[in-house]
Known about the structure:
The structure holds 2 protein chains of 2 kinds. Chain A folds into 2 domains: 11-169, CATH 1.20.1420.20; 182-306, Four Helix Bundle (Hemerythrin (Met), subunit A). In chain A, 65% of the residues lie in helices and 0% in strands. Chain A contains 12 helices and no strands. Chain A has helices spanning 2-10, 16-42, 48-63, 78-82, 91-101, 109-114, 121-129, 140-169, 182-209, 228-246, 251-267, 278-306. The relative contact order of chain A is 0.12. The model of chain A is unreliable at 4-13 (pLDDT under 50). The longest helix of chain B is centred in the N-terminal third of the chain and has 12 residues, at 3-14. In chain B, the strands form 7 sheets. Chain B has a 4-stranded antiparallel β-sheet with strand order 3-2-1-28, with no helix packed on it. A 4-stranded antiparallel β-sheet of chain B has the order 4-5-6-7, with no helix packed on it. A 4-stranded antiparallel β-sheet of chain B has the order 8-9-10-11, with no helix packed on it. Chain B is globular. The interface between A and B is medium-sized, with 28 and 40 residues.
Amino acid sequence: MRAVILSLLLASPAAADTAAVVQDHIRPGQAAFAMAANALAASDSCDVTTLTPAFNAAYDAWMGVSHLHLGPSEEEGRALAILFWPDPKGLGAKAQRALLTGDPALISTEALVQQSVAARGLAGLERLLFPAEPLPADPCPLIKATAADLAQMAVALALEWGPYGDLLLSAGQPGNPRFLSADEATQALFTQLATGLDFIADRQIGRPLGTFDKPRPDLALGHASGRPLRNVTLSLQALRDLAFRLSPESPKTLAAFDHTLALARDLNDPAFDGLADPQGWLKVEILQQSVRFTRETAIAELGPALGVTLGFNSADGD
Amino acid sequence: MQRRTFLASFAAACAPSISWSDVGRPALLAAGKRGEDFFLHGLDALGQSLFQIALPGRGHAAAAHPTRAEAVAFARRPGTFALVIDCGTGGVRHRLTPPKGQQFNGHGAFSADGSLLMTSEVVAEGSEGRIGLWDTQDYRRVTDWPSHGIGPHDIRLLPDGRLAVANGGIQTDPVDRTKLNLESMRPNLALLSADGSLVDQIELPDLAQNSIRHLALTGTSIAFAMQWEGDPDDAVPLLGLWTPGSAPRLCEASPAEAFTMQGYAGSLAATDTRIVITSPKGGAAMVFASDGTPVATHRRADLCGAASLGDGFVLTDGLGALWQADDTGLQALGTGQTLWDNHLVALG
């Protein structure tokens, strides 16, 4: 009898933190993105003013889940195709230009699936809706195909998070090939938190920040559509929610998030255009430091509370 | 008694040594961490530990003597220790120390007959590369050769006795591993003759920030795995193939997987038909055909150790699991409390 009870204990279901993340953070976030992307694809218009609210709603929803680099998001390069950024070589613009100047019959959702991931998704739509220079042809067919492709990916993602979420929830149970213990699921989610904060600090803020002598606001995520600060804020809010679901009793981490979000709000510089001004540059750098401090705080506070660390090898490097 | 037999039995009497079959014929060696302690393990083909030996600090890689049940465990860079371990008793037979001002740099290799051990080393100040030579009779330092590059890491002996050296190109701080020359680094892959002279060498002029760090032999070429020190948003190949005498071929990932490895290959292994590279940072293993065509990508957090075993691969991760890997996926061999370190070494 004792052995049976012990074996039941060993085969305990996923830790409560994992369940909360899957059920209250990941799945609702993916569903919201799928709905927003569908609403965008449902529009008949190619008019920027008409499309912008739906474009922003889909982009906003993606910011709520874009930090999840695991499972369905990683399959078939999906996360890349949904938002290919940064694109230092301008691969997306090149591929789109080829499509726009080529045979219009080749522009279809099916054809886009075969295209470079750089040409697709939200970054592709942004270039069509807010072009830096006049487009060589009517973008309407490509806008429609890109939005439909985005919606397809979003729906597939939301559906696949069903079974993949179950794998997280059944971590450590016999027959689960992905997560061999409950701790592995917890660690996977904890890693998303740390890498998500890295991405905000190093890329979303780091790329436009550039150097004091050479800031590059034009390199910010969502610069053409005026979304850089909004993207940072939404990413921070999403990661704060992830931290809260993982470990609700994390006062230092949540306070660090709140402080960082307050700094972002006070910046009041939607497109990071203030980077050209020394004062403005320093404010963005302070925001970056606050994101990094939040990361360190989360690792120090949540790691021991959850009983996990960042990867033994990934953090080493050799 | 014939002279050869006499010498053999004399040697056995002087240095009683046991063979790998005496210690259960391990197929693999791997360093790992359990709790706060570090160990070297001998594993069978199914990943079961046959023996474990305590190490004084974090290990990196190991080299196995071709016949004697003897392994050299190398410390993580900058190497403060290399221990010659009796895998039967667990005892340390020799503690190797590089000459003053030099450091071990992670890897080593035995000659085919087991008479020589070669170690990758750097001059602490400046990271100029050296290859240390040790006589395995008593592990006396014989000499050292220039590695013909900065920061050599992995070294691999070819069947014909020539030595391939991955000169990673990175100059590091002798104490804290800070990288000092990322803007001017020039890694190379060097081929040394059996007497240490430079036979051939390649560089990657267009990808000078791609540090060549680990090596595997495919039978027809030298496979090399790289770590990208340039803009992380540039997608670069992390696997290369070199047949000495010709230009290297660089193997791109499939476009959808171009960023999967996050610019970092931590380890690689090759069979007759496949090559695998691992990325703990990306949480993935990527399988290529031996001509460099990408075949499959498998995801698992913190994967790093890789060794070929028969037609397939065994991989280890920092969460404590061992995996069998082929084109179709990963299959768990087992999991435990030992977190596996960077490298898995196949014996024989």
